[in-house]
Amino acid sequence: MTGAMYAAIGGLKTHMGNLNVIGNNIANCNTQAYKAQRMTFQESIYTMSRSGSNGGVTAGGNNPSQVGYGCTMGSIDLNMSPSTFSPTGYGLDCMLMQEGFFLVGDKTMAGANPTSFDLTRMGDFRADANGYITDRRGNCLYGFATVQNPYYKQLQDAIAQIPADAQDYDTQVENLTNTWNKIARDAGYDNATDETFTSTELTPLRIPLSAAAPTFANGGYATQADEDNKVNARWDEGDPVYNVLSGRNADDGSRSSLSFYDEDGNLIPTADLGTAMSDATNTMTYTGPTVNPDDKSVKLSSMSISKEGAIVGTTDKGDTVLVGYVAVANCDANDGVTHQGGYYYKCLEGAGEMSVSCLGGILAGKYLNNKMASADANELIGAGGTGEIKNGGLEASSTDIATEFSNMILTQRGYQANTRIITVTDSMLEELVNMKR
After folding, report:
1. Are 310 and 204 in the same domain?
2. Are 91 and 303 in contact (CB under 8 A)?
């Protein structure tokens, strides 16, 4: 067999590979969040017929003479740039209007290394029966959840003990506020005056639990007389109850959010919450609302995602509930991620290091897992760039039908031309065989 036939066979195989890529792109022309691929060709091996020389004193040089043996696949590349927005009308459907990925995983991955998560551009999210924000395949959406400030209630209770008609009421409130702010800062919180704040632990986003009816027994009323007369309730039944944070870890300074339910779905007693929130340097008892074990999440009449990635819901009473902020991941090379099937990717070899950000600069300059400082730059939360999230729709496929059909025609003609080489080579071999008559 001649070298021309080998080259043509290589060309046929490579063009067929390119047709496979084109066919996959066209098959996914209506697949939301699909990223079109392209294949590049490269020359195959060469044989040396004559080596080159630089020439000498009396003779000039000559170029090397090489014969090639066709082509082969160079690369198959992903185009990860944002595509077209496709409206759906669903409040939790969303699209990243920049490069990057949503982080999804199972419920047990809170605080895990970001590279452990699956990455996706598909923003088809919903709230499941237990209040978790998941995609349509049941994987939880990870982000930065709203948590209770446990010192807020204690500050409010302390202020409530000051007689309202005290002559120096404002001064006493100011002194108490300064005292509790210092206590909160020493424990790693920004202050004691904000009722909630955003945790920087990567955690599955979940609608807050609902508060049980206040009673004297569960701490909803300060005295039995208050409960009997239904006055001075510390919370209302059905109010959102956010998670709290544990004490600061002495080894690396990290802090995790404590769910009111364990991994088996059992209610964690208030006393156990207080114990879990203690460490060697900071002991603090939880004094917030008691959750209702029969109603695991607050009833929200509507939900949506803001351009900064804030998942916001509205209760039947018209109160606004901030579930948390969606985390956005970026790799050093976003087009180097590895497909895991469907619309999931992994940050593996070829993608480089991964960084996590929160859009709008909400948590810029803070560290993952509520650390006060970190030597690992990858744990620093980014500002998220100038992009945003657009809700009410999904990202359309990036397949360009016109381009794919043009490439299909070129591939077909290239394949056809290579078959002609085989036909011509066969004719020449036939002539050679028929030389002796």
Report:
1. yes
2. yes
The answer to whether the beta carbons of residues 240 and 298 sit under 8 Å apart is yes
Q: Which three-class secondary structure string do you get for 166-195?
A: CCCHHHHHHHHHHHHHHHHHHCCCCCCCCC
Which pLDDT tens digit goes with each residue over 88-140?
A: 999 899 999 999 999 999 988 888 889 999 999 999 999 998 899 999 999 99
Question: Which residues in 316-402 belong to E strands, given as ranges?
Answer: 320-326, 328-331, 338-341, 344-346, 354-357, 389-391, 393-395
Q: How far apart are CA 207 and CA 140, in angstroms?
A: 12
| Encoded tokens for 158 | 């302390």
Say if residue 102 is in the same domain as residue 217: no
Inter-CA distances, 12 with 72, 179, 301, 432, Å: 10, 78, 59, 25
Q: CA 93 from chain center: how many Å?
A: 14
- What predicted TM-score, i.e. pTM, was given to this entire model? 0.85
Q: Into how many domains does the chain fold?
A: 3
Bridge-based pairing of strands 320-326 and 310-315 is: antiparallel
Q: What is the distance of C-alpha 35 from the center of its chain? A: 17
